[in-house]
Amino acid sequence: MTVIVAGGGIAGMTMALTCHELAIPVVVHESVDRLQPLGVGINLQPNAVRELFDLGLEKQLEEIGVPAKEWALVGRNGNDVWAEPRGRDAGYLWPQYSIHRGRLQMLLYEEVLKRLGPSAVVTGSRLLGYHSGGDTIQASFSTPTGNTKTVEGAVLIGADGLHSAARKQMYPNEGPPVWGGPVMWRGTSEGVPIRTGASFVLVGTLDQRFVCYPISRPDPLTGFATINWIAEITYDTSQGWGDSDWNRQVPTEKFLAAFQDWAFDWLDIPQLISSAAAVYEYPMVDRDPVDSWVDGRCALIGDAAHVMYPVGSNGASQAIVDARVLGAAIGKLGVGVTALKAYENSMLDDVNQLVLRNRGAGPIGILGLVEERCGGVFQNIEDVIPREEIEEYMAGYKAAAGFAIETLNNSPKTVSV
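The structure corresponding to this sequence follows.
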């Protein structure tokens, strides 16, 4: 009996490839009529890269991703708070990739078509609802013509994102996503990569910060790469904001003045912002953790299960891990409720805690301590916070997010065929 997947994003396509690896029939239903490489940059942590390598995508990822070498927090006056190696440079057996989200989604989509055939993805098919009964589940989808179709399968996997219809049926009174005050403006610009040439750099404070990292290799002639950047300001939540929409384009003048004097000899933030071809505004939102991701024969994965603030660069990574852990449970226990509950039992509590950690600023929360102790201005960070204290803070986050080095390097494969 077929696994029905609602949503053709990173989580849904990884689920499809995992089912194929297990020789389990699967069909993905995607709401848009035509998939396109939308979005900007994301980071794939080594725990997710390991899973994609196990799916045979090592060569393809190397072609479209930039192996990250460094993760750095920098104070408002340009001095380092913390810097550490990342990926293989840190001792992981797998790299960390900075990558364009749309290119990753299209890579996964093309692999699904290649391995499973064109009938494995149905576009223009938006989930409306489901009904579990006996040994099957019936899922209703809208069609491009405005009609409704019902398909039957063994289980339904809700990978339909932030505004998940599957989650809405499970929790009809949940309401809209929770906005905690931060607003992000995201764009890409051409520029020379800084520091190691493959560094993820965050500059500023908890209330106002700027992130940048390359998502392409430098052009051999110009030395320029595509630099993904995020400008962020935290506002008073009482004034409200619009709904969450990655595709709301805005002029840079809306926020550029707040970063006008953020220019250093190694990074000119106003210039980087001004040179972007397009900028997208997004109020940073998440949802409160829930008690269950499973309802009968339906289970949630990815953002449908646990949309989280992107402060730890692990939203997409967790979506990939979700699909693989669920796949492992299905491979061991069969396509049914027992496997869905086993997946939930192994992950729900830890990931719910991760959602709350990210809401509390995740790994960049150390900037709050810097602000408290010196107002954010310092020459040598060890005069403000001992190195050991920062190391302990960072190690705790990595453990919570599932990519502590020794644990990950020594863990067995998630999916064994």
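The longest strand covers residues 178-191.
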